[in-house]
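Annotated sample (chain length 363).
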Amino acid sequence: MEKIKAFLKKKDIEISLKRYGIDALGAMAQGLFCSLLIGTIINTIGNQFGIPFLISPVATVGGAEYTVGGLASAMSGPAMAVAIGYALKCPPLVLFSLVTVGFASNALGGAGGPLAVLFIAIIASEIGKAVSKETKIDILLTPLVTIAVGIVLSAWWAPALGRAASSVGSIIMWATELQPFLMGILVSVIVGIALTLPISSAAICAALSLTGLAGGAAVAGCSAQMIGFAVMSFKENKWGGLISQGIGTSMLQMGNIIKNPRIWIAPILTSAITGPAATCVFKMQMNGTPVSSGMGTCGFVGQIGVYTGWVNDVAAGSKASITGFDWAGLILISFILPAVLCPLINMGVRKLGWVKDGDMKLS
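Output written by the structure step:
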């Protein structure tokens, strides 16, 4: 046992909640931000402002055309895996091999791609570290072992993790069959939670073709998480945190949620309020592309989806016009209510002693 402990220490393999649930998960969120979310923002800017360079294909791979943003988004798996490897202090040959591992696990994981990347990249990293520099053929053996472990686990686990993540969709579809008030609460809360978890809320919404009132509730829930965390953690994270969470992703808080799950209370309760407000008060529908339902305020994709739906509905004759009440609802649900309610609720949570200064500090 002592020899094993000494070997693990020599290889800097630390099996702990902090290393895997906080360091690795936090780094993965940054990798996701620097690929999929930045790519989404680039695409949104290009489409809304009609910038030719950003909306025209710049590369064709395997018959598929990619824009600048599309290339960034396509690299989300490798980016997350390499970020995890960096957090786990992998040596170079292991770190570089994780590019392949991340691509495979994310591609095979479907809606659960990020979750698959998290589990599989951690295991591949630690096994790669264990064999690193142990033989004279390190340059061959280390990449071979790291990639082989990653590919085998991706083929074995990733599809199951994808199905598990997609099962969230069955709950969402059940919720859409309820009357608007309960549906608004459940869809808003469930999709909002999915947005912050290491699974793809956008992929789930796209797979379910989630639009209409249910899509509006999903936008509300995602916005409550993103704007809520961004505003209530402003004291700790300042303007950088406001922007990275508010128009990036609330997944950046997952490491902190692991340390203190009670920081999640305020955003979840906020989404339980804004969801039914969207469905029952403002009748807010998201009739743009279904993927927009699961994006929230990331690059303002959710809000642009709502607006695009309005335009399409007016053109189709199913909506008379875009009214001031429509705009008031979109702004209140997406930005103002989360920015006000989430910090207020969190004040109550702090008074109970459940949340303290520094609990939402981003590294």
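Annotation: The mean pLDDT is 92.
Annotation: The beta strands are 59-61, 64-66.
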